[in-house]
């Protein structure tokens, strides 16, 4: 069942890319930004299918800034 979800996400990503890519006619920086962000989102979606217990971005931010909060409380 997980592979059906992966296939669905892949088809959705492909369709969105095919629809949006021609709008970036000569904008190479925008194409690169679109591709990079879309690939990051795609990989994260696939990872969440196979590992749903992965921590989210807010948990990562909390882990990073928690030591600074302790320092600032003093």
Number of strands: 0
| Alpha-carbon distance between the two ends | 51 Å
Indicate the proportion of strand residues. under 5%
Q: Percent helix among the residues?
A: over 70%
- Broad shape: flat
Question: What is the count of helical runs?
Answer: 3
Largest sheet: none
Mean pLDDT: 89
- The parts where pLDDT drops under 50 for at least 5 residues are none
Radius of gyration: 18 Å
Output the helix-strand order: HHH
Could you say which structural class the secondary elements and strand pairing correspond to? mainly alpha
What structural keywords apply?
single chain; 74 residues; mainly alpha; 3 helices; 0% strand
Structural commentary:
By secondary structure, the chain is mainly alpha-helical. 80% of the residues lie in helices and 0% in strands. The protein has helices at 2-20, 28-50, 57-73. The longest helix has 23 residues, at 28-50. The termini are far apart.
